[in-house]
Design goal:
The complex is a heterodimer of chains A (473) and B (360). Chain A has 473 residues and is an alpha+beta fold. In chain A, 46% of the residues lie in helices and 12% in strands. Chain A folds into three domains: 5-103, no CATH class; 132-246, no CATH class; 260-428, no CATH class. In chain A, a hairpin with a 5-residue loop joins strand 9 (231-235) and strand 10 (241-244). The radius of gyration of chain B is 21 Å and the shape is globular. Classes of the chains: A alpha+beta (473), B mainly alpha (360). Chain A: Keywords: Membrane, Transmembrane, Transmembrane helix.
């Protein structure tokens, strides 16, 4: 049988493959009968000099064979493997008939900086960056254990994005790991650019408005999730790590809760759940009361409210929607513009538009207070994904209360509850620890109990090793 | 392996199924039919309902946790059972439907006198449909969350302590009532709902704790009913209580905060949660019965058809009084099923045991 000539890696074949790729670098060493081919922007220059250029400079042609015996040079006999290797940051060395790959991956990247979406007051400030190796190093340096296992997958027909699944052996439930790996392997798409995109491919119910996997930019959060028996997924070229499985209530904790005294952490956590109630119900209650249930306002307050609303020509639901949309516009503009201008837009736009709207008789003062409180409360929720989802469903509830008053509000809440109860995260209930009821988890979900009381891992992890600490004081 | 319902969730599910719209009229019925200290009549109701649950737990134990349909079909040919299944489904379906309709009519009376109540009914039915299609485990999860969203309301009873007077209870026991058999049946219907636990057997772990959940749910409901009734008897006078249409609404209207008052409207809205669970559970029970006859039909299609039928039926009674009559009459049938069904199953199990045909 004749050998498959197409599959034999030759310099000509590789150069043909990368034809019209202007960023490819091809260097010839005639005195050594060697050629190297690589993408300069994907390799670490120091490594290239140290491992190839300097030895090549010192050696004679016959010395190269000894050099290639070193383990960093991997002899490759398949053309496709050479192409993939070059794309992944390897330097392909052609010497005679043989081809060797040297892994010199080290592109330029953003240095480790603070997270902009998950800031904390106390505690570590470093955040994930776009380089998966850097992100893995941020985790590895925090978990110095051989039990931290990492599975490598590749997704995207064009992007060939590398995805790493991280778990701690003997703590994480392997069924979850297997399930997650299967879901990732089943993805058939051209490119995945971010962790946020990946979650929407692997979630249990991708059409839901609620995120079913927690995403984080913080290595300390990722490590705490791993230690709790959850699984972390890191996507190359994305600063967002995915934690799974997750529960609805998990989105209301912040790493700050653990870095501060437990009493303060508990108070903050309760405040966030209050913020959830305010976000969902404040504007809606205003609409409900001023449209249908004026009897609910005590007499003294009624006068203030009536004065505030007497010049407004619209029904309260239009007035509320107008202001809510205005707030969302300001928020979106603030998020898209550079930080300094964004802040100005936010403050000036808020005050000017708010005050002018009241003076022009387009809206009432009381509504401005309701809308502002509701917006501020939504920003208290630490997860941006969850906060955005809740702000979106708030519009639905406002419309429902505009139609049916209090019963509309209750029906909206019922709809949310029914939807939440149908959701799962990696097959486990999204409403853990309420349903299924796990009172043992409450002390690390609804409050942040002292560390001596947080002796077991969350039940949702379904870990075989639930004891996390034995200190009683 | 599908997840099983835990005892706590069974307790919550049963409690939420039992509590519903009757709570609004219960104190008045107690005063009207049983007179002074009518709340004492709740005690025999608790005993009877507990005995009924005991019968159900006997079925669970003797049947070794098998589905009640399996128990029946083991001795009686399936086609013979079809009319019985149909009857069960019809009673449960329409009973659930009327509970929903009554809730909607009261809300319409309170806040939206000019709106067509069938629009609200449609919204409630859509919610019920969304809840029922995902199966009993999701219903139980939603019921648990609904329980926590509404359970805090019972703390509002503390608000009435300053206005409570023991002397209003009077030293007389059950004087001034009338038509007590009818009253007993109506009041007992406030406890109904636990009988649906007989259909939960395939969804629970086969141990003693499973049925403990049903007892716990019933007991919690009993404690709430008794405390609410005592508060009503000590807050209103007997004559007043007899005349009030919905004493609980008047109680709630009494609550005032500096920034909000007349909360009965909002709090009545929150009673949608237990009412919704009650409606859904009766419809789920009807669905389980129909599924036995039509096993191949898709679950969501069946739910849709049943809810569409029930929605059509709910057009028939137009007024609260008419709905009340339907509920009272269906209440007799549901009470009959609550006692008759487990007794029938026990007889079948005893026959099977004698014939040595009990399957594990």
């Amino acid at each position: 049988m004749e050998p498959d000539t197409q599959n034999i890696p030759t310099l000509r074949h590789i150069l043909d493959e990368f034809d019209q790729c202007a960023d490819l670098s091809h260097r010839r060493f005639p005195e050594l009968s060697a050629d190297i081919v690589y993408f300069p922007h994907t390799v670490d220059n120091n490594l290239l000099i140290q491992e190839i250029l300097l030895p090549f400079d010192r050696l004679q042609a016959d010395g190269l064979d000894k050099l290639f015996l070193q383990s960093q040079f991997v002899e490759t006999r398949e053309s496709k493997a050479v192409v993939v290797g070059i794309l992944e940051g390897c330097v392909a060395v052609f010497h005679g008939e043989a081809v060797y790959l040297l892994d010199a991956y080290g592109p330029e990247g953003r240095s480790v900086q603070q997270s902009e979406t998950e800031t904390v007051i106390a505690g570590p400030h470093d955040a994930f960056v776009e380089s998966a190796p850097t992100n893995l190093s941020l985790i590895r340096r925090r978990i110095k254990s051989s039990h931290l296992k990492i599975i490598r997958c590749e997704i995207g027909e064009i992007s060939k994005t590398t995805v790493y699944i991280l778990y701690i052996k003997d703590i994480a439930n392997l069924k979850y790991v297997q399930d997650l790996q299967n879901r990732i392997n089943r993805i058939e798409t051209d490119a995945i650019n971010d962790g946020g995109t990946l979650t929407q491919f692997i979630e249990d119910m991708p059409n839901s408005v609620f995120p079913q996997f927690l995403t984080t930019e913080r290595p300390d959060v990722a490590v705490s999730k791993l230690a709790a028996g959850r699984i972390i997924t890191i996507v190359d070229n994305s600063p967002t790590a995915i934690s799974a499985p997750s529960s609805f209530f998990e989105f209301f904790s912040s790493p700050d809760d653990y870095y501060q005294r437990w009493a303060l952490g508990t108070a903050l956590r309760l405040l966030r759940f209050l913020a959830l109630v305010i976000t969902i119900s404040f504007t809606a209650m205003y609409v409900s009361v001023t449209t249908f249930h004026y009897e609910m306002i005590p007499e003294a307050l009624l006068r203030t409210l009536a004065e505030s609303r007497n010049r407004v020509p619209f029904p309260p639901v239009y007035e509320a929607l107008l202001m809510e949309i205005m707030i969302e516009l300001l928020r979106e503009a603030g998020a898209r513009l550079p930080t300094k201008i964004g802040q100005t837009i936010g403050i000036v736009g808020g005050i000017v538009i708010g005050q002018a709207a009241v003076q022009a008789g387009l809206t009432s003062n009381v509504l401005i207070i309701a809308v502002a409180s509701s917006a501020i409360a939504s920003f208290v929720i630490p997860s941006y994904m969850m906060s955005a989802s809740i702000r979106l469903i708030r519009f639905g509830i406002i419309i429902l209360t505009g139609i049916w008053g209090n019963i509309g509000l209750v029906m909206g809440i019922a709809l949310i509850v029914i939807h939440l109860s149908n959701l799962t995260s990696l097959g486990s209930s999204y409403l853990t620890p309420i349903a299924p009821m796990k009172t043992g988890d409450w002390k690390d979900v609804f409050i942040r109990a002292p560390f001596s009381k947080l002796s077991s891992r969350p039940s949702q992890s379904k870990t075989m090793n639930s004891i996390r600490q034995k200190n009683k004081k | 392996m599908p997840e099983k319902l835990r005892p706590f969730h069974i307790a919550v599910l049963m409690h939420m199924t039992q509590s519903g719209i009757v709570i609004f009229t219960l104190p008045r019925n107690l005063a009207d039919y049983f007179g002074t200290n009518g709340w004492l009549f709740l005690v025999p109701c608790i005993v009877v309902s507990t005995f009924n649950i005991y019968l159900i737990s006997l079925v669970f134990r003797l049947g070794q946790g098998r589905s009640v349909f399996e128990i029946m079909e083991q001795t009686i040919p399936r086609p013979v059972l079809y009319p019985f299944y149909g009857g069960l489904a019809a009673v449960w379906l329409v009973f659930g439907c009327m509970i929903g309709k009554k809730y909607v009519l009261i809300f319409q009376m309170l806040s939206f006198p000019t709106t067509n109540p069938m629009v609200f009914k449609l919204a409630v039915d859509i919610l019920a449909f969304l809840m029922i299609t995902k199966g009993i485990y999701s219903i139980s999860k939603a019921a648990t969350l609904f329980f926590w969203l509404s359970a805090w309301m019972y703390l509002l009873m503390l608000w009435f302590f300053p206005a409570f007077r023991w002397e209003r209870l009077t030293p007389f026991i059950l004087k001034g009532g009338h038509n007590q058999f009818k009253g007993a049946m109506e009041i007992y219907s406030a406890f109904l709902g636990y009988e649906l636990s007989i259909l939960l057997f395939p969804y629970v772990n086969k141990n003693k704790k499973a049925m403990a959940g049903v007892y716990a749910g019933n007991l919690y409901l009993a404690v709430l009913y008794i405390s609410l009734a005592i508060i009503c008897f000590g807050f209103f006078s007997l004559g007043q209580l007899k005349k009030l249409l919905y004493p609980l609404l008047d109680l709630l209207a009494y609550i005032q905060f500096p920034f909000i008052e007349r909360l009965e409207n909002l709090l009545y809205g929150l009673f949608l949660f237990p009412v919704l669970v009650t409606v859904v559970m009766y419809w789920w029970a009807a669905q389980e019965s129909v599924r036995r006859m039509l096993p191949r039909i898709k679950l969501s299609v069946l739910s849709f058809l049943l809810i569409a039928i029930s929605y059509s039926i709910s057009f028939i009674p137009k007024t609260l009084d008419a709905v009340g009559v339907w509920i009272t009459n269906l209440g007799y049938a549901v009470t009959g099923i609550a006692f008759g069904f487990p007794v029938l199953l026990l007889l079948l199990l005893l026959i099977q045991r004698k014939g040595g045909e009990v399957r594990a």
